[in-house]
Amino acid sequence: MQTLVDPLKRALQIRPKEVAVIDGEKTFTYEELWGRCSRLVGALRNLGSVKGDRIAILSNNSHQYFEAYIGIPVGGMVIVPLNTRHALPELLYALKDSGAKILLTDRSDIGPLQGSVDLVISLNGQYEEILANAVQAPLGEDSNEEDLAGLFYTGGTTGASKGVMLTHRNLIANAFNWLSAVPQSPNDISLVMAPMFHAAGSNGILAAIWQGACQVALSTFDPATVLQLIEKHKINITLGVPSMLAAIAEEQQMSPKDVSSLKILAHGGSPIATEVIKRCSQAFTSAQMIEVYGATETSPLATLLGNEEQLINDPKARSCGRSVIGCSITICAPEGHTLPTGEVGEVVVSGANIMQGYWNKTEQSAAVLKGGGYWTGDLGYLDAQGYLFLVDRSKDMIVSGGENVYSTEVEDILYKFPGVLEAAVFGVPDEKWGEAVYAVVVPRPEATDVTPEALIAFCREHIGGYKVPKGIDIQLEPLPKSGPGKVLKRELRAPFWAATDRSVN
Question: Is residue 218 exposed (0-12), middle (13-18) or buried (19+ Cβ within 10 Å)?
Fold first, then answer.
């Protein structure tokens, strides 16, 4: 049995004086990180928190985030990372649904969030005070591998939002999966540039701690700052979404820095253009490019494609790679049986990294957890060598800048606009974000105020900015539909994707 305390315990044993976290000008050794985590647990217990309590965090990447990410679960509690890009209604929903009692935040003005929890702790001052006044608590004594470690919310507030339940076992398994697939050593320095509330941001954290390696926290993404940190700290490993990679490659071309230390440049979370891979391989010649595929529900790693920069002209470049050690990938028919090599079906992932289910959502959990695996909703096939190729997303999920956007969620908002008769939302290719949210709207005959500008403004009031359609077509004809009456989104999408060379995974 292993829990999140074991990676930290090992690091403390083998590299106590080595730097664990760098945050701006602040550095913390593993000895100091252990002490701060234990005082955080002590402080939370002094405030009345008990085993199983949910503790939310709304913050940019920081050393405090590292402490909360580790300390809260090893103290027997459950961390609830909140998406800093979510709109107020979405944040309120997650807090209410999770039943979080305490909110840790670096924001000074949180408005109605203040009244949705018992206590708000400011990471910019109050946090340090409670740690200074707390007695160190034992770590790991009140948790086991089947205990819930975190609730990671996906989607939005209109029914798609779900708290993914990840246990200690799930997150430990993901760390093993990462270490089995990526050539990472104890002396490597990682840059955590993707937000830590995101599966991509937190993917390699435990793996690095297990080795006693150093990690650098990037508060908010800025391509120039990324390059400066790579040069300053001799960064060896980083992971981001494709839009981040495109931005740092362009910055390196315009204002080059010494990035020769970088040996692994990983990406995941959304489609990537072949041109972005080319630009990155030219800008970061020392780095191996790695593509990862998975989901929050898989903790998140499921497959990996290494040496991507060498495969640009190889058909395998359009794949997600092969399952990592610890995961198995099967392609299943709707009836549940496994399909042979080359046949398209739903991608099912199995392993110790698979979530326990969705918080308070029994039916939705049962719908995706079947036969011991997680049914991803992605359609794909396996080739003879086990490479996974995705061909579509059966759930009509849009992945924009590494963020999941559920089309039905955006459609529900559009339908709330009084003059809207029909609405269909789908993803279109975007060089910066991988995919962009797009909508086609049919207004009611008598409506005169249904314009793209009015609809976009209306959406901004209800959902996070990355979910708001980047473009909206207004048409007077009914949306195309199948015999049973389902909107044929593939017909709406087709003109936008016809001329791209883009991978769809």
Answer: buried
Amino acid letter, residue 37: C
204 touches 178 (CB < 8 A): yes
E strand or H helix at 486: none
Let me know if 495 is exposed, middle or buried by CB neighbors in 10 A (0-12, 13-18, 19+).
exposed
Tokens of 444: 């009611």
Cα(223)–Cα(446) distance, integer angstroms:
48
- The strand order across the sheet containing 420-430 reads 420-430, 434-443, 471-474
26, β-bridge pairs: 23
Round to whole Å and give the CA distance between 437 and 427. 5
* Strand, helix or coil for residue 12: helix
Cβ-contact 220, 65 below 8 angstroms: no
Domain boundaries, the chain: 5-380, 397-497
Say which CATH class 5-380 falls into: alpha beta
Token output for 257: 């820095």
Task: Dump pLDDT digits (tens) for 216-237.
Answer: 999 999 999 999 999 999 999 9
Statement: 397-497 belongs to CATH 3.40.50.1100: no
> What is the value of pTM for the model shown?
0.86
Number of Cβ atoms within 10 Å of the Cβ of 333: 12
Q: What distance in Å separates the CA atoms of residue 345 and residue 336, rounded to the nearest whole number?
A: 10
To the nearest 10 degrees (0 to 180), the angle between helices 242-254 and 223-233 is: 70
Is 432:269 a contact under the CB 8 Å cutoff? no
- CA–CA distance, 420 with 423 (Å, rounded to integer): 7
Q: Is 297 exposed, middle or buried (0-12, 13-18, 19+ CB in 10 A)?
A: buried
pLDDT at residue 499 greater than cutoff 80: no
**What distance in Å separates the CA atoms of residue 57 and residue 205, rounded to the nearest whole number?**
17
Q: Average pLDDT in the 154-174 region? A: 82
Burial class, 499, CB count within 10 angstroms (exposed 0-12 / middle 13-18 / buried 19+): exposed
Strand intervals (E) in 415-504: 420-430, 434-443, 471-474
What type of residue sits at position 91? Answer: L
Provide the pLDDT confidence category of residue 262 given band limits of 50, 70 and 90. very high
